[in-house]
Amino acid sequence: MRTFLLTPQDGWMDGWMGKHREILCGPLKDRVMTFIHYLKSCAPSAVRSLIPQKKPNIRNMSSTAGGLRPASVVVLHRSLAPAFEKFCQANSGPLPLLGRSEPGKWTLPTLGTAPDARTGCPQFQKYEFGACTGSLASLEEYSEQLKDMVTFFLGCSFSLEGALEKVGLPRRDPAGHVGAYKTAVPCVHIAGFCCPLVVTMRPIPEDKLERLVQASCSTVGQPIHIGDPELLGIKDLSKPDYGDPAVCQPGDVPVFWPSRLTSLEAVSSCKTPLAFTSAPGCTVMTDLKDMESPANRLTPEGIPEVHLISQDPLHYSITSASAAQKIRELETIIAVDPGNRGIGHLFCKDELLRASLSLSHAHSVLITTGFPTHFKHEPPEETDGPPGAIALATFLQALEKGVSMVVDQRALSLFEKLVEEAVEQGVMKTQTPILTYQGGSAEAAQAFLCENRDPKSPRFDHLVAIERTGRAADGGYYNARKMNVKHLVDPIDDLFLAAQKIPGISSTGVGDGGNELGMGKVKEAVKRHIRNGDVIACDVEADFAVIAGVSNWGGYALACALYILNSCEVHECYLRKAVGPSRAPGEQNWTQALPSITKEEKMLGILVRHKVRSGVSGIVGMEVDGLPFHGTHTQIIQKLLDVTSVSV
Predict the structure, then answer these.
(1) What is the mean pLDDT of residues 589-601?
(2) Cα(518)–Cα(146) distance, rounded to whole angstroms?
(3) What are residue 403's phi and psi, to 5 degrees?
């Protein structure tokens, strides 16, 4: 609940209290609190009658009488009104537009009997050519100029405090206004309005994080970022651009919401000769019912889940519970064990969910695959791995992310042909760069992963290994039969080891036997439960270990999970930081980018033409890991698509 800031000199307050001495006693602080409770019980018309009178020094108010809603004000020349309206509509997260007046009119029919915007707001700021040139208690002296100006009312709910109370969090706000910060996130540019998103921050104990997010989604709307402020371009939380800082205590996580103060940056950006805004923390009260916007309406499908996706930098992501449940179903589908290898002992719940959330935030992804298990044949690769890698790359391309692949130098020509033919046959839309790495040292790995060898400028922010041979504890690379194929393998593992020390790079390993790159995360279980595990277990970890009965299935499932996440309104809004229009799956051709029975049959056919063999049987034919494509693999693909709710 926001409070009134009343000074002891307020004779009006003393007069009011004189009429209610039977319920008042104690110091000024107690009298103020009693006054607030009185206002909460008042009828809207009674509260409204107080606001236009310039008697109480009311800076902030909310949670007062039912039906009243606070709004901030922007006053612009009529020539800018159409563009500013479009700007608000394009950036509705920080700028929820309640309505606008006609030039020279100060009440809005849609707002009931809103106070006169010239005198009802306790304080205004004046802008001239983009610069704030002063604060005003009234706009009366500008009556002539206001005849050609339009007033915009923006939703300005302070009900986050109610969400904090709901989850049992005491208020830790500073004595003044809650701090707000300019970010490096640009709002959508409309005409002359071009400005960064402004956010507010609350420090939230980690154990109350999800409950707070759920509570806030039903009131003020979901946060736009949870974690390290530098991911928003905020360098120092102790130095807000507006208001006073909130201090994070040990165990707190910074949580950020879009701020209406974005409107001040927008007004400044247009550099109009004259404009006015309500000052930070100041509002007018309207009769507009506190309508729930779609972003704030918490349905069973929209209940958010919060998941940690990175420790360095600290970063959480959110998605709806219904989307998360679908991804868990995908994880169950691919976790079957047709080869009876005992992979169920390696399973870690929600690894697919966290991996796909991390990939959804990534901008540039590096994928590796290739397991030369058939070392007596040419090529020695198997049919498990490349199809899953290409399926994931295809969907990442559809999400407009940068995608590259890194493979063994000796297999470069093979993979270039595989990708080229995949594009020719419509499996992929465009070719992806094929890279090689043979550095063999930590310094070389860092140079490969980062621009100008600078760990603060990574070229990729997520590495994915799908059925990629992984280095064991003794430095060898073993197939399931304990045969060392090190002579056929480049040290791509070094990239995953280097990524562990570079903030901002996450990694995922997909495997089906424990000897694949990334499976170091579950190596103890591999040693205990997988045949020959004490020798073959990969020693190199990935942040996320996705376990699948066949590794290709893991690649398919990651693509389907990304489709589900980016079709989820909760996650999609979080990704775009509540600025810009939402995007629909149909507009992006995502469905065509998903794996399908037809496309995967074509991909396997391409591998067969290049004499790539099945991993278990060594057969050159339409099978993977000794399992026939028609029947076993087609059933898994269809089940994944059924959960994803698409028909392709």
Answers:
(1) 94
(2) 65
(3) -135, 130
Q: What is the CATH number of domain 69-286?
A: 3.30.2040.10
pLDDT confidence bin for 46, thresholds 50/70/90: very low
The answer to whether 198 and 181 are in contact (CB under 8 A) is: yes
| Nearest CA-CA partner of 542 in 498, 503, 511, 496 | 496
The one-letter code for the residue type at 552 is N
Sequence ranges of the chain with CATH classification 3.90.1640.20:
339-594
Q: What is the pLDDT of residues 74-108, one digit of tens each?
A: 999 999 999 999 999 999 999 999 888 888 776 54
- Contact present, 288 and 98 (Cβ < 8 Å): yes
Intervals of CATH 3.30.2040.10 along the chain: 69-286
Q: What is the chain's alpha carbon radius of gyration, rounded to the nearest angstrom?
A: 30
Residues 62, 134: Cα–Cα separation, whole Å: 26
What's the per-residue H, E or C state across 482-500? CCECHHHCCCCHHHHHHHC
Tokens linked to 250: 């040990």
pLDDT at res. 10: 37
Is 12:168 a contact under the CB 8 Å cutoff? no
Secondary structure class of 192 (helix, strand, coil): coil
Domain spanning 339-594 has what CATH number? 3.90.1640.20
- Name the pTM for this structure: 0.86
Least-confidence region, from 129-143, 387-401, 478-492, 537-551: 129-143
- 77/147 Cα distance (integer angstroms): 9
Burial bucket for residue 30 (CB in 10 Å: 0-12, 13-18, 19+): exposed
Q: Residue 444 carries which side chain, given as an amino acid letter? A: A
